[in-house]
Design goal:
The protein has two domains: 1-29; 35-136, Lipocalin. It is of the alpha+beta class. The radius of gyration is 20 Å and the shape is globular. The protein has helices at residues 2-27, 35-38, 62-65, and strands spanning 42-51, 57-58, 68-72, 76-80, 85-93, 98-103, 110-117, 121-125, 131-136.
């Protein structure tokens, strides 16, 4: 009887460890629901950090730190920085983990892979492999 209880305890502990490990691994690099991008109506995202395609950290200028990207529930976006402003439309492919920004009056769009999207963080990966990590305001 003692051996059976010990085996059960060991098995339960092992299952709990596997569950915790699985949950911890799945939390990182997860693309959440569409409304995490814009909240209830709109949400402001600010640059937290950037990396090059090789993974090296890019030094943030004051202008980078002051850049805001706002996504609206209606599919519009607005980006503003001390140097420029841009507005337009975006499409978010949640299952495909992609977002495409098309500026008003522009003929080309900017497409990014979404590496991670939670309520307070988003990581966008450019075609060249560079990444931009943003935090919600």
């Amino acid at each position: 009887m003692k051996r059976s209880a010990l085996s059960f305890h060991y098995l339960a502990s092992l299952l709990m460890l596997v569950a915790l490990f699985t949950f911890g691994c799945n939390k990182e690099n997860k693309v959440g629901e569409t409304n995490m991008l814009y909240g209830t109506d709109s949400k402001v995202w600010k640059t937290d950090k950037e990396t090059t395609a090789g993974g090296d950290k890019v030094a943030q200028t004051d202008a980078d730190k002051d850049t805001e990207l706002r996504f609206y529930a209606n599919g519009n976006f607005n980006m503003s920085s001390p140097a420029q402003t841009m507005q337009g439309k975006y499409t978010f492919d949640q299952p495909g983990k992609k977002i495409t920004l098309t500026p008003d009056g522009g003929t080309t769009s900017m497409a990014f892979d979404i590496v991670n999207l939670t309520d307070d963080k988003i990581t966008l990966k450019g075609a060249d492999g560079s990444e931009m990590m943003l935090e919600s305001e």
